[in-house]
Design goal:
Layout lengths: L23 H4 L6 H8 L1 H9 L10 E4 L7 E4 L2 E2 L1 H13 L3 E6 L5 E5 H17 L7 E4 L6 H12 L2 E4 L6 H11 L3 E5 L2 E3 L2 E3 L1 H10 L6 E5 L13 E3 H7 L9 E2 L3 E7 L7 E6 L1 H14 L7 E4 L6 H13 L3 E5 L10 H8 L4 E4 L1 H10 L2 H4 L8 E5 L5 H11 L6 E4 L33 E4 L11 E6 L14 H9 L6 E9 L5 E6 L3 E4 L2 E4 H9 L4 E11 L3 E10 L7 H14 L8 E4 L13 H8 L14 H12 L6
Parallel strand pairs: 4-17, 6-7, 6-8, 8-11, 11-12, 16-17, 16-18, 18-19, 19-20, 28-29
Antiparallel strand pairs: 1-2, 3-13, 4-5, 9-10, 14-15, 21-22, 22-23, 23-24, 25-26, 27-28
The protein binds adenosine-5'-monophosphate-propyl ester (PRX).
Length: 653
């Protein structure tokens, strides 16, 4: 936690409470509140019941193996194939059902049935095999939201190869580092992706990354824009050529329940991103069970998770959870405001979307654009709304329910993390009384507590550290290649308790209120970025001597990145340099990491031991009273920075 102390901003509860829609419980997936007690009485048994909804080739002999804690193992002895669970087992009864209504940003549409998806996955799995990928193989995927992305993921799963999906908004450097760390031998990408009417040059970025990643021997390229791209003979191959040349016959082989399904990189408090490892049996159990329960999934639902598959939300709730449940989903390629602010609502109306899952940042943008956009669309099919990624402020919550949910749809505010694999704290829509701003309570089978510095429960109503005190099937198993860091990051602060890294408060009714991160991790538009990563990118620029970065509260994006930079002697700082530094960060990490503002300063506030006082910089950024600065080695610098930050707090473009 460094010198910052818990950054706990208590969201104020406004007092309104919304009971579930009358009668919903009668037909709901979970309609009886007794479920909480039943699961708490035998949590492992409860999860076994959920796991039995999947198709296993061999049953497990041990549901939970705690012998090597915190390296927990679930469903050991059991074997299954994740792709077979997502595809093959639906073919007999619902092969012609739509898996994805896919809509491209320019307006092109595809309606892909389970049978078609199955065939494409089988073909592409065979194609990957010809590139040397098999059980235990490693494939990196760097794509936009096109159907080939889930095809590639499921093809890996079919073979027992692990994938790492790198968000298509990341830079070539970020891609290279992840491919290297992951040990990928194949990269799957596309020529360009479409975003807000522009081309994102994924293949060009991939070429740069591949030049620094000699272990990656093949690059498979899906054609999207059709515009020319550079080509390296012998290394590059077209996705469609490989697919067409491959047999659609690819029997799914049973995999160990603990076989790695994927790793997904997420920011930590030190520079290097962490490869969060998820396995097959436990992960799929968690993702599918929560998808079904939390959204109260019915056979005739049309479900839309408007996230990007490059983040964990898309893994669990666009690909694995919904497909394991045989759901019909909408998958949209592009930006929410393209070509107009109506795009989301047009899509929701067109497919009669009944369940919508998105992020508070997006909801606040729609609010800002105005009520008129959703109002002219028929959103009457919507019956459950979901939110994820950051705390949702009550205003946005109520707008979402009123404007998008016709004033009646329950809003499920789902708290979870890349590490948890699936939702952990969330309402169940047919039985929970909702309070805007609260994620309600831990789901059945999940046990979470709020503790103080001493590891003991804090009294109700008081803020503290959120911990999970019992293992759960979809938990991360380790950090790729770094067991020690896994233990140190999550299990050392309070032995035996998983440290989520979030502050939390439980109210007198037992409802959980998430209070934001307690470490130096920022949450920008629902995406976690570490301050250190952005600082390293700034210092990487030849003009920069030192940099400090904090997340400051931002109405739209939750937090915005505020940077404070000391230049090298002799360098003249001006607006052009600031613009250059911002672009430098975008190049090294990706546009999402671009600081919203950069203040050039002669010095940074430091403790006498030389630690940068980020708390002070946060106060400055949020224009708060600074309090005591006498512990600083260089008191005078603070006023100087404060003055400059007030003059020019925003440089957003
Ligand atoms: O701080 C919490 C916040 O997002 C973090 C996890 O980020 P990531 O691993 O990128 O996964 C995001 C999607 C699951 C958490 O530690 N967070 C996520 N959902 C919520 C939330 N904070 C408050 N309320 C939520 N519903």
């Amino acid at each position: 936690m460094g010198d910052t102390g818990p950054a706990i901003d208590a969201l104020q509860q406004r007092g309104e409470a919304y009971p579930p829609p009358a009668g919903m419980a009668t037909y709901a997936v979970v309609g009886d509140p007794a479920v909480y007690d039943r699961a708490a009485a035998d949590p492992v048994g409860w999860w076994e019941d959920q796991a039995r909804r999947l198709q296993w080739d061999t049953p497990w002999h041990t549901a939970l193996d705690e012998s090597d804690a915190p390296f927990y193992r679930w469903f050991t002895g059991g074997t299954l194939n994740v792709a077979a669970n997502c595809l093959d087992r639906h073919l007999a009864e619902r092969g012609d059902r739509i898996a994805f209504h896919w809509e491209g940003e320019p307006g092109d549409r595809l309606h892909i049935t389970y049978r078609e998806l199955h065939e494409r996955v089988c073909r592409f799995a065979n194609a990957l095999r010809t590139l040397g990928v098999g059980r235990g193989g490693r494939v990196a995927i760097y794509m936009g939201m096109i159907p080939e992305l889930p095809v590639a993921m499921l093809a890996c799963a079919r073979l027992g190869a692990a994938h790492t999906v790198v968000f298509g908004g990341f830079s070539s450097e970020a891609l290279r580092d992840r491919m290297e760390d992951f040990g990928a031998t194949v990269l799957v990408t596309q020529d360009h992706s479409f975003r807000a009417g522009k081309h994102v040059h994924l293949k060009d970025n991939a070429d740069v990354a591949l030049a620094g990643a000699p272990g990656v021997r093949h690059c498979v390229v899906a054609r999207r824009s059709g515009d020319p791209v550079e080509w390296t003979e012998g290394r590059d191959a077209w996705f469609h050529d490989l697919e067409q040349a491959s047999s659609p016959d690819c029997p799914a082989e049973p995999m160990d329940a603990e076989q790695m399904l994927f790793a997904l990189y997420t920011s930590g408090t030190t520079g290097k991103p962490k490869g969060i490892v998820h396995t097959s049996g436990g992960y799929l159990t968690g993702a599918s069970a929560t998808h079904r329960m939390v959204f109260d999934l019915r056979d005739d639902d049309v479900y839309w998770c408007a996230a990007d598959i490059g983040w964990v939300t898309g893994h669990s709730y666009i690909v694995y959870g919904p497909l394991a449940n045989g759901a019909t989903s909408v998958m949209y390629e592009g930006a929410p405001a393209f070509p107009s602010h109506s795009r989301m609502w047009e899509i929701a109306e067109r497919y009669r979307v009944s369940i919508l899952y998105t992020a508070p940042t997006a909801i606040r943008s729609y609010m800002k654009w105005g009520d008129s956009y959703p109002k002219v669309h028929d959103l009457s099919a919507i019956r459950v709304l979901g939110s994820v990624g950051e705390p949702i402020n009550p205003e946005a919550w109520e707008w979402y329910r009123d404007l998008i949910g016709s004033g009646t749809a329950p809003v499920v505010d789902t708290w979870w993390q890349t590490e948890t694999g699936s939702m952990m704290i969330s309402p169940l829509p047919a039985i929970s009384t909702l309070k805007p701003g609260s994620a309600s309570r831990p789901l059945p089978g999940i046990s979470a507590r709020v503790v103080g510095e001493d590891g003991l429960d804090v009294p109700r109503g008081e803020g503290g550290y959120l911990v999970i005190d019992r293992p759960w099937p979809s938990m991360l198993r380790t950090l790729l290649g770094d067991d020690d860091r896994y233990v140190a990051t999550y299990w050392s602060r309070f032995p035996g308790l998983y440290l989520a890294g979030d502050g939390c408060r439980v109210d007198e009714d037992g409802d959980y209120w998430l209070l934001g991160r307690i470490d130096d991790v920022m949450n920008v538009s629902g995406h976690r970025l570490s301050t250190i990563e952005v600082e390293s990118a700034l210092v990487d620029h030849h003009a920069v001597a030192e940099a400090a970065v904090v997340g400051r509260a931002d109405e739209l994006t939750g937090q915005a990145i505020a940077a404070f930079v000391t230049l090298r002697d002799g360098v003249v700082g001006d607006e052009a340099l600031i613009a250059e530094l911002r672009n430098h960060v975008a190049t090294l990490i990706g546009p999402i990491a671009k600081p919203a503002s950069i203040v050039l300063t002669a010095d940074l506030p430091k403790t006498r031991s030389g630690k940068i006082m980020r708390r002070l910089l946060r106060d400055v950024s949020e224009q708060r009273h600074l309090g005591d600065v006498t512990t600083l080695a260089n008191e005078e610098v603070v006023e100087e920075i404060a003055a400059m930050a007030t003059v020019n707090p925003h440089q957003e473009d």
